[in-house]
Amino acid sequence: MAGRALDDVSRLRRGWRWSSPRPHTWPKQGAVVPAPPSDLGWARVEPVRSIRWLIQRTLLLPFTEAMVHPKVEGREWVKELKRPAIFAANHSSHADTSLILYSLTDAARDRTVVAAAADYWFKHPILGNVVSLFLNTFPFSRTGGAQGQLHSSSELLRSGWNLVLFPEGSRSPDGRIQEFKPGVGFLAKETGTPVVPLHIQGAFQVMPRHQRLPVPYPVRVRIGRPMTPERNEDTRTFTARVEKAVRTLAAEPEQPEIQGTWIDRWRASRPRELRYES
Q1: How far is 113 from 137, CA to CA, in rounded Å?
Q2: What are φ and ψ of residue 207, in 5° steps?
């Protein structure tokens, strides 16, 4: 009985599209190899995915809504993603990840992994496993082994997962955006993955550094149109352009050059016809 119920939850979570063949617009799928234990691959397979769906729908998302009532602008850009994407956001609070997941559509959230600081969240295995169960995180090194971590991120993107990345590397001490590290540009160039810039306003007031519990405060999440590197654009130049887009999204009022006009957003929200590999 329990097994059949879990199967029903899994079908409900995936919806009809996710049992369909792989769209040809997605990058070439990486080789199917067992994930190393440190990569927490168990968090990205069933029945864990369905358990996480239940946790997020019944606990995480309702709590986020009740606490800060986030205002989300530009959700149209992630409603009908044609391929996996990198979600690049400013980072000022532990609340950022929950706010980003809240801002995504159900379909995009279900296939999104979060790069989490290995030296912070995974020092204690129990904490790392709990966070991975709730948020679908994987360890991302801030202090060494960068090539290996970037390779793991590339493999996840090639396997069809969206990636939440905080290019600043750590939380801002004062709420202001810090300089972006070039890893986001490297991943975009290496995998041909578009980058979706996001700006979160108000998260620093909800839960700044060294504060253990969140407090209510108005929050706004702005999502910009996907960006891709130009043909001859190097990694650092593209990273700087992503950083500029996130900073622009922080400005008032709306920023059509980054968010798109209302016509652009309307077109992005229309259902698309998927063509599949034979």
Answers
A1: 6
A2: -160, 80
Give the mean model confidence (pLDDT) for residues 258-273. Answer: 66
Question: Using N-to-C axis directions, what is the helix angle for 48-55 and 125-135, rounded to 10°?
Answer: 80
- Calculate what percentage of the chain has a pLDDT beyond 70: 76
Flag whether the pTM goes above 0.90: no
Output the CATH code of domain 42-269: 3.40.1130.10
Locate the domains of the chain by residue range: 42-269
**Quick check: bond before 23 cis, omega within 30?**
no
Q: How far apart are CA 173 and CA 213, in angstroms?
A: 17
Strands (E), 70-223: 71-73, 86-89, 112-117, 137-140, 162-165, 195-201, 220-223
Which two three-digit tokens encode residue 114? 């979060």
Q: Residue 56 is encoded by which pair of tokens?
A: 């997020």
**195-201 and 71-73 beta bridge pairing:** unpaired
